[in-house]
Amino acid sequence: MSEPLTPEREAEIREWVEAMGKQKDIRYYGSWQQHGELLGEIDRLRTERAKYVGKEPTIAEEMEHLSRCLDAVYALCGATEKQAGRWEHPLPVPEWVEQVRKAADGDRPDDPADNRRRIYIDGKGNGWISACSEKGVEYVVPVEPAAAVEQAVEEVADETGSLREIGRCW
User: Is 144 inside a domain boundary?
Assistant: First the structure.
């Protein structure tokens, strides 16, 4: 497995390539053109890395983006319902509208045989994972290990403003 291309590793590779380019035995070390190509590849990788490093979206930005996407889905459903009813003899609302709206709301049938843990995100962008269920009450713990205190789903939702299931895991 190769090492990550850190600035130190990049400098080390660049020094090695330049040193090899100065050698006289071209049969083993390759041509000057190949060394130039390697140096060019290092520059290309550095430029590509600069596009991504330090530019990762925050949880709040991700949540904002997801909210905009959901708003667009709800707007499309609403526009489709409105379009169906605008004629003198209204058309039936397409059956997919209700299914898409339910999916956007996160409503899905609960399968009792599905024993995977639920993954949630709360109104503040914090992650939670289900720990256990007791007498019909589901308890969750924060994904952040430093704050591992079991709480009921309803308590977390009340405390943080919301709690949405975003997936499941084993």
Answer: yes
- Where do we find the tokens 């709480």? 151
DSSP symbols for the chain = -PPP--HHHHHHHHHHHHHHHT-S-HHHH--HHHHHHHHHHHHHHHHHHHHHTT-PPPHHHHHHHHHHHHHHHHHHHHHHHHHHTSSSSPPPPPHHHHHHHHHHHT-----TT--PEEEEEETTS-EEEEEEEETTEEEEEESSGGG---EEHHHHHHHHS-EEEEEEE-
Residue 2 covered by a domain: no
Total count of domains within the chain: 3
The string of pLDDT tens digits covering residues 69-97 is 999 999 999 998 888 887 777 788 888 88
Mean pLDDT of the chain, nearest integer: 78
Is residue 24 located within the same domain as residue 63?
no
0.70 cut: is pTM over it? no
